[in-house]
Design a protein that fits this description.
It is a single chain. This protein is mostly helical. The protein is built from twelve helices and seven strands. A hairpin with a 4-residue loop joins strand 1 and strand 2. Helix 8 crosses helix 11. The longest helix has 27 residues. Keywords: Pyruvate.
Length: 314
């Protein structure tokens, strides 16, 4: 019965329409200290620091659970804080222990923005212009480079002559070149991405076998070389080098304050005069595709110079 009476004191009864129901509440009222519980270490330390005897502990008003003395009760007894501060703090904690959603209001709908109220056709047009400008900027940011290899047609011409003399059919050079380009575009190396290179480097550090994704990948290309004579190729390259050399000489003349000595124009003897059957195969490609394009040109060089007869059999 003593336990039931103590429980009844802790759980007060609230009268309802159907009867009485128990309600759990936070104890905030001041009460006499219950010394059957040991003091908190912080409270015992505070009592010792202020030289409060154990006989005066019963005079301190307790606001803690089950009549236990809190540190704020001791400070209130000493007059350091207001006497009502512990009880006010306990009631504030009890109030804020439950989430109060009574002051929440539904936000008013926002007014439509001008961009959203515009016709759908205008929005599509604006998006198209933005995407077009981004693609133009990306295209401008890609650096291009030009690579070239010399290809000799001597063996290819001799093969054509043998076919014409034996069969009586003249096969044009364009047939051999297009067939060589079609074969050379197969199985070209693909540059691995940054993530694949990092994975391969990590596997190499750990001594693991490289994964299939980290190994060299191959795919079919769509390159078509530009074929010019050596004289045309070297003349276009020589003009750019000559203009660069001229600008360098002008800067040196300005710095030294003297005129450069006149140089005799020397015509460059092109190696094509020694071998008139040589042509230059070149490609203008983005800088990151240089290795892939060079592999294509080297395969074409091998097919046309060393194995021209195989182009008709393949």
């Amino acid at each position: 019965m003593a336990n039931l009476s103590a429980l009844a004191r802790r759980l007060p009864l609230r009268q309802t329409s159907n009867g009485y129901s128990s309600v759990r509440c936070v104890q905030t009222a001041a009460q006499q200290p219950n010394l059957s519980y040991p003091l908190y270490p912080s409270v015992a330390q505070l009592l010792k620091q202020n030289n409060i005897p154990s006989n005066d502990v019963s005079k301190i008003t307790a606001t803690g659970p089950n009549g236990r003395i809190l540190k704020g009760d001791v400070l209130s007894y000493l007059g350091t804080i207001a006497a009502s501060y512990p009880a006010d703090l306990a009631s504030q904690l009890a109030k804020n222990s439950r989430l109060d959603l009574s002051n929440i209001k539904i936000a008013a709908p926002q007014a439509p923005s001008p961009a959203a109220s515009a016709p759908q056709g205008e929005q599509i047009q604006v998006r198209g212009e933005t995407a077009g400008s981004r693609s133009e900027e990306a295209a401008e940011s890609v650096f291009e480079t030009k690579i070239a290899v010399p290809v000799s047609f001597s063996k290819l011409i001799s093969v054509r002559r043998r076919i014409q003399s034996s069969v009586g059919v003249e096969i044009p050079l364009a047939t051999f070149v297009s067939r060589a380009a079609d074969i050379a575009n197969e199985n070209l190396p693909v540059k691995p991405s940054e993530k694949q290179r990092s994975s391969a480097l990590f596997d190499e550090i750990l001594g693991h076998r490289p994964s299939a994704s980290a190994q060299m990948a191959f795919s079919r290309g769509d390159y078509l070389p530009e074929i010019v004579s050596p004289s045309e190729f070297y003349s276009s390259s020589g003009e750019s080098q000559q203009s660069l050399r001229k600008s360098t000489d002008d800067i040196i003349d300005v710095l030294t304050g003297r005129s450069p000595p006149s140089k005799r124009n020397v015509t460059r003897t092109v190696e094509a005069e020694e071998d008139r059957n040589t042509s230059i195969f070149s490609l203008t490609i983005p800088e990151h595709e240089e290795a892939r394009a060079m592999a294509f040109l080297e395969k074409m060089q091998v097919l046309l110079e060393e194995e021209p007869a195989q182009l008709l059999a393949l």
